[in-house]
């Protein structure tokens, strides 16, 4: 599976637990880490990187899931981290990150900005990643069970879907053995956010008819009084009655014989 | 002639003694592969008391084998002691020969009894070398009796004396070899020496101190990177010694709920697997029942090779419900549950490979402080209309009610509401902690995640330290056990009672206003929770509650300290190892066998497991619900 000497960088960020609000691992980042471990083959060729302002403890979950060292690029809360990350991982051939981070500055836009900075193609939402010679092939997640194969030449940025591979089980021993390495804080320009007033709310659709559902149902079905559009067949033998039904179904293209 | 036999006996005695000593040294070298353990040589003095009181207390539950063992072991020890005196020290006194004859006859009687049981042995007994043992004992008894008789008879036997002397020597050599060589070669008789030493150097010394039950798991030093047991050599040496004490009687196997359910765990085989690992072999001599579904599998073991994956399948490890039925039954006082948890600790702490939903439960505990991943603020939602005050720092309450994880289970909330109603009707000043109450860490600890347990315990003790209360009452035996027995060593000492104890006292004091007994009560049986009955010895309080509300309990065959597990304990309902049957289904069959229409429970987990049994079955009711139903309006 692993290709010798492939340099892999995995970007992780702590997520906020939906119930307790505590920092925890994000399933997509964990999947990216598990893929990274598998593809890099050894921890020397794997860089696990985080840029942001979270405390070391918030990253402990990734250590427990197999990262032997998480490198932290300390930045301010509102920093524009894409250029900083790009500078750190410029020599990586394969950059893996979760489709979207669970918190911090790693929005779903980050992989695109990063790919732009690195001048590398981006393969989004990977379920599996295979290295073939100098190129990467992924199976892309699409809704409703659809999948698509994408390929690009190295170096490449791949965002990983949370169902790609199961994360390594949480291990206390790995957490204790792992290290968080803090780089020198870098002064970064704040991300440029343009604020605009939100547009008008979409107007709810107006129903074509004001009649109640019951009334519309009565209008559609047949009755003896002839006022409705339906037809009540009482004359004739069963074959003729069946012929009426069959004609109706054919008219409405509900049967094709 | 007699003198020639006497010299031969002297020679034989010293030869046997030398071989035995060599064997003991050989076996001791195996034990010493283990880690150091804090022991004192003076503990050897405790052996007689522990043997005649603590061990015999367990053995005496089976009166036949107890009597047989007293006769055969007592006779053999007496024969050996007299032989040491009379022939070892070359006294050759006829009076001692007479005593030896009596002792030999006693031993013969015992050996005949032991032999008779081997005619149609129960399935739990190991065969192989253990079937040979009664024959060896018979040979030794006959040989020593004959030798003593010859010594006493002078020349009465005449020409036959020579033949008889040879017969006596043959018996003594054959029978004596079982002991003299058996210890060093790991034969059945190693149990005598290892068993006695195990009594002295038992890893749980507090088991023998008064009426305290030593059932708490011991903490490990995580800071010192102690991550449990990986290889046989990672056990403390006195644990390795304890494995050698096993007599393969299979009492544990017969009591084990996982074994009965066909899950791949046989506690007897588990202990023998540890022996195989310690002595480096493949255990071909084992002639007992295998782990269910693993018959014929040959597994290599080595003191320095990982146990899980080699000697043991991980499934074996995760089948255990930590119900302690095996430990309760073991006549050699071996600690099976400690062994299982030590092995689990290594798997969980270093690799995290907990099967089934166990991994998810542990993640929830780490992230939300609850097993099910619930918001802490929801723990007391069921009490919202009952006016139970939430304790604030600085306030004081007599009773602190801790609901535990059962508070998130909609079925168990009914029981909790009933409990609150009864406590209030009795006029108790009760309060709860509300959203600051974390999990006690019981599940994490049994699944081997000592790190999460210690973290949760720290959190719990920290929280409790901020509030003022006299006593804690909880309906959850697991929470009860943790707070009462496992927190003290970490520095948390609380006065904690199970709700059955509180209810029993209230009813006996007449503090609960009961309405006159009107409707005839359905036949009721009671299921003892392991963590209340076996872990804490509390089988009486729930029965006092039934008495207080006028319910006559139809007891199950396996009740009280012998009660059978519901299948939840030790996280077994999370790891969910497949078997041929489900443990709660078997327990429900026990309940059906009594003909009872309802079964009373006193534990949120037993409630969940028994409520989960499908099909027509007796009603599951909680103790508190039964009392609440009798409350005067």
Automatic annotation (TrEMBL), chain A:
<protein>
    <submittedName>
        <fullName>Electron transfer flavoprotein beta-subunit</fullName>
    </submittedName>
</protein>
<feature type="domain" description="Electron transfer flavoprotein alpha/beta-subunit N-terminal">
    <location>
        <begin position="16"/>
        <end position="197"/>
    </location>
</feature>
<keyword id="KW-0249">Electron transport</keyword>
<dbReference type="InterPro" id="IPR014730">
    <property type="entry name" value="ETF_a/b_N"/>
</dbReference>
<dbReference type="Pfam" id="PF01012">
    <property type="entry name" value="ETF"/>
</dbReference>
<dbReference type="InterPro" id="IPR014729">
    <property type="entry name" value="Rossmann-like_a/b/a_fold"/>
</dbReference>
<keyword id="KW-0813">Transport</keyword>
TrEMBL record, chain B:
<keyword id="KW-0812">Transmembrane</keyword>
<keyword id="KW-0472">Membrane</keyword>
<dbReference type="InterPro" id="IPR017900">
    <property type="entry name" value="4Fe4S_Fe_S_CS"/>
</dbReference>
<feature type="domain" description="4Fe-4S ferredoxin-type">
    <location>
        <begin position="308"/>
        <end position="339"/>
    </location>
</feature>
<feature type="transmembrane region" description="Helical">
    <location>
        <begin position="70"/>
        <end position="92"/>
    </location>
</feature>
<dbReference type="GO" id="GO:0016491">
    <property type="term" value="F:oxidoreductase activity"/>
</dbReference>
<dbReference type="InterPro" id="IPR017896">
    <property type="entry name" value="4Fe4S_Fe-S-bd"/>
</dbReference>
<dbReference type="InterPro" id="IPR009051">
    <property type="entry name" value="Helical_ferredxn"/>
</dbReference>
<dbReference type="GO" id="GO:0005886">
    <property type="term" value="C:plasma membrane"/>
</dbReference>
<keyword id="KW-0560">Oxidoreductase</keyword>
<keyword id="KW-0004">4Fe-4S</keyword>
<feature type="transmembrane region" description="Helical">
    <location>
        <begin position="137"/>
        <end position="158"/>
    </location>
</feature>
<dbReference type="Pfam" id="PF13187">
    <property type="entry name" value="Fer4_9"/>
</dbReference>
<feature type="transmembrane region" description="Helical">
    <location>
        <begin position="6"/>
        <end position="25"/>
    </location>
</feature>
<keyword id="KW-0479">Metal-binding</keyword>
<keyword id="KW-1133">Transmembrane helix</keyword>
<dbReference type="InterPro" id="IPR051460">
    <property type="entry name" value="HdrC_iron-sulfur_subunit"/>
</dbReference>
<dbReference type="GO" id="GO:0046872">
    <property type="term" value="F:metal ion binding"/>
</dbReference>
<dbReference type="InterPro" id="IPR021872">
    <property type="entry name" value="Csal_0991-like_N"/>
</dbReference>
<keyword id="KW-0411">Iron-sulfur</keyword>
<dbReference type="GO" id="GO:0051539">
    <property type="term" value="F:4 iron, 4 sulfur cluster binding"/>
</dbReference>
<feature type="domain" description="4Fe-4S ferredoxin-type">
    <location>
        <begin position="237"/>
        <end position="266"/>
    </location>
</feature>
